């Protein structure tokens, strides 16, 4: 069990709901490092005493923080601070950079490789070109909240992005660069997710043991003229989640 600072009463005179104040107070202790990743936070009754609120208020706050990926509950054990996990909910057609910023995650990128390569059978079929035709490969380590999240290998049709490697690529959104430089605006993308083991080379870059579970993601992105990008990614299974709400 983690140590805690003295109790702090929330301000009932503020228009902000008590559950939101409680949520913010708990988040503050996590972000300050008082309750570090993987540590167990105090039980509900102790949180009630610390924050000066009812059990219902505490449960509301904990439920929200769990939905945001900050906490995890283990039946019979208690509630624990999660490692820095990116939880993606309902998603639109956005780049990784835009998606992470929308989730409040500080995003970074490290270009591992830029090369002209022949299209494999898989890449050629996705981009609707001949096998062996030249494509541009951009391999990047994607970072969220200063920790590795995944590795993305973007294959771009060379005929759609002439001169791409003649200039320095910014660390931000590739889609934004493609729009400004080549007038390419994505209109649709198809993604396939499956679970697989992280290979040795990628495991070293992601900071996980070889064979750790991860998301293997394939994405084909098209604009008004057709497919221009095929991206294959390996995302850390302990740092990236997708959460969906299903309704009738």
From TrEMBL:
PANTHER family: MANNOSYL-D-GLYCERATE TRANSPORT/METABOLISM SYSTEM REPRESSOR MNGR-RELATED, MANNOSYL-D-GLYCERATE TRANSPORT_METABOLISM SYSTEM REPRESSOR MNGR-RELATED
Domain HTH gntR-type: start-end pairs: 16-84
Organism field: Prosthecomicrobium pneumaticum
Full protein name: GntR family transcriptional regulator
GO molecular function, one term: DNA binding
Entry keyword annotation includes Flavoprotein: no
Lineage top rank: taxon: Bacteria
GO annotation, biological process: negative regulation of DNA-templated transcription
Entry-linked InterPro entries: Bact_HTH_transcr_reg (IPR050679), Chorismate_lyase_/UTRA_dom_sf (IPR028978), Tscrpt_reg_HTH_GntR (IPR000524), UTRA (IPR011663), WH-like_DNA-bd_sf (IPR036388), WH_DNA-bd_sf (IPR036390)
Keywords on record: DNA-binding, Transcription, Transcription regulation
Entries under SMART domains matching the protein: HTH_GNTR, UTRA
């Amino acid at each position: 069990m983690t140590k805690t600072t003295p109790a702090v009463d929330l301000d009932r005179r503020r228009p902000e709901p008590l559950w939101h104040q409680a949520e913010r107070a708990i988040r503050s202790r996590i972000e300050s490092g008082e309750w570090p990743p993987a540590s167990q936070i105090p039980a509900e009754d102790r949180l009630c005493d610390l924050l000066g609120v009812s059990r219902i208020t505490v449960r509301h706050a904990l439920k929200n923080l769990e939905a945001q990926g900050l906490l995890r509950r283990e039946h019979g054990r208690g509630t624990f601070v999660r490692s820095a996990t990116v939880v993606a909910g309902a998603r639109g057609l956005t780049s990784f950079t835009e998606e992470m910023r929308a989730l409040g995650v500080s995003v970074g990128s490290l270009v591992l490789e830029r090369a002209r390569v022949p299209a494999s059978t898989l890449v050629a079929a996705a981009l609707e070109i001949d096998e062996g035709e030249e494509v541009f490969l951009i391999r990047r380590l994607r970072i969220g909240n200063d920790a590795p999240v995944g590795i993305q290998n973007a294959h771009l049709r060379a005929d759609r992005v002439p001169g791409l490697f003649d200039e320095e690529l910014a660390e931000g959104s590739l889609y934004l660069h493609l729009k400004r430089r080549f007038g390419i605006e994505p209109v649709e993308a198809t993604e396939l997710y499956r679970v697989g083991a992280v290979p040795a080379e990628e495991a070293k870059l992601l900071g996980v043991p070889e064979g750790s579970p991860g998301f293997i993601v394939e994405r084909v992105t098209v604009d008004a003229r057709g497919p221009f990008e095929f991206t294959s990614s390996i995302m850390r299974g302990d740092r990236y989640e997708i959460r969906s709400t299903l309704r009738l």
